[in-house]
Specification:
150 residues; two-stranded antiparallel ribbon; 61% helix; 7% strand
Length: 150
Amino acid sequence: MHFETRHLAGSKRRDRAAFKRAAEKGATPIELVAEVEVYRRDHYTCQFCGGGLILNERPRHPNGPSVDHIEWIAGRGPHTYDNTRAAHLGCNTSQGWAYKQSRNARDRRRRAARERYRKQQRAKDREAVLGFVAIVVVVFLILIVSNWVG
């Protein structure tokens, strides 16, 4: 069975899911993008590595075909033919993995900054408590000395 015939039903389902996701994110403009048309337009070539797409691989194989959005739908990128490109699934997901790693690094930096801020606040709170305790001790000593002398 030919690749385009075999993947047509799955392509329609994935396209409708991407269309719905784009609408939920508020992306404009939105159009139905057929995966097969994107593969034809890009001459069945991965736009990341330049290798040919292995069309008859099982659907989720790393060398299998996938459609990548240049401007991410999550970032309100449009769901149009101009914003899509053909890619190996492995190349497409490794790009997302790199983003995820950079996002994780950013989150680690934010957590470290938050922890530094909390540490400074705890130090300030300790100083305030120690100052209060020092005042209480001085007042207590004054009262004791005034009663002892008087």
